[in-house]
Amino acid sequence: MIPPETYLGFHVLAILPPIAVLAVVTYLRPDTQWGRTPAIGLGIILALAVVYTTPWDNLLIEVGVWGYGDGVTFAHIWAAPIGEYLFFVLQPILTALWLFNLDIPTHGDLRLSARARLAGVAAGVAVSAVGIAMLAAGPSMLYLGAILAWAGPILAIQWGFGWTHLVRAWKAVVVGISVPTLYLWVADWYAISHGLWIISETYTTGIAPFGLPLEEAVFFLVTNVFVVQGLVLYLWLVDQWPTVAADVRAALPPALAELMPNDPALSGTDDRDVAAECE
User: Fold this and answer.
1) CA distances from 131 to 8, 138, 144 (A)
2) H or E element in which residue 198 lies
3) Which of 81, 90, 103, 269 is deepest in the core (most CB within 10 A)?
4) ∠58-121-109 over CA atoms, to 5°?
5) What does pTM read for this prediction?
C-alpha cells in the first residue's frame, strides 16, 4: 500500500474503504440492524462525539501531547486539523456499521434498581478519579490521565443507565468493540510509523507495545466503548419504551396521560418492520 502523505489521504486509504464495504454489506443483508431507529441512534452518537471530543482534543493539541508531520494538514479549526474532525465522525460510522451486522439483544426491563444505577455511576466516577490522579502524577501521565478523566463522565452515564443490559448483551458488546478497535490500532500504528502524527514523549508513559503508544491504544478502545455501548443502550431503550410508556400512562390521571409524547422515534417500529407489514 502506498503510504498516505496527508491526514485526508489517511482517511481515503485506511478509513473510507472499510466504511464503504460495511455500508454495502449492512444494506444488502436482510438480518442487519438497520433502518430509521439505528440511523437516529448513530446520528445522536455522531453529534455527541463532535461536541464532547472537540474541546478535549484541541486542548491536548495546544499543550503539545501530539502534533503532525510537515505538510500532513492543510487547514485547522481551533488547533485541530480538518482531518481530526472527520475522524470524530468516521470512526463512529465505521464502528456502528460493524455493530449493526451483529445480533444485538434488546430484551429486558428498562427499570433498574437505584442501587444498580448507583453502582454504574460510581464505576464511571472511579475511572475519572483514576485519570485525575494520573494527571497529578507528572507530565508522563498527562495523556493517559486525560483520556480516563474525560472518559469517566460518559461511562458513568452509560453504566448508570443500563450496565445490566450491557452485561446481558455482552457478546455483541465485546465483538462490536474488539474488531474495529483492533483495526484502528493497526491503522493508527501505520500513521504514526509514517510520520502523519507524532506523539509526545514528554506527555506519555513510553509504553508502546509493537510500536503503538499505550495511550493511543486506550483512546481507540475507550471511544469504541462509547459508540458500541451507546448504540446498544439506545436500541434497547427504543425497543422497551412502549411497555414503559404504557405503564406510565396507566398510572397517570387521564388528563396527564394525554400529554405524554408519543415519539415515533421511540415507537419500536423500524423501516424494515414497516416494509414487511406492507408486503
Assistant:
1) 31, 12, 7
2) strand 197-199
3) 81
4) 120
5) 0.89
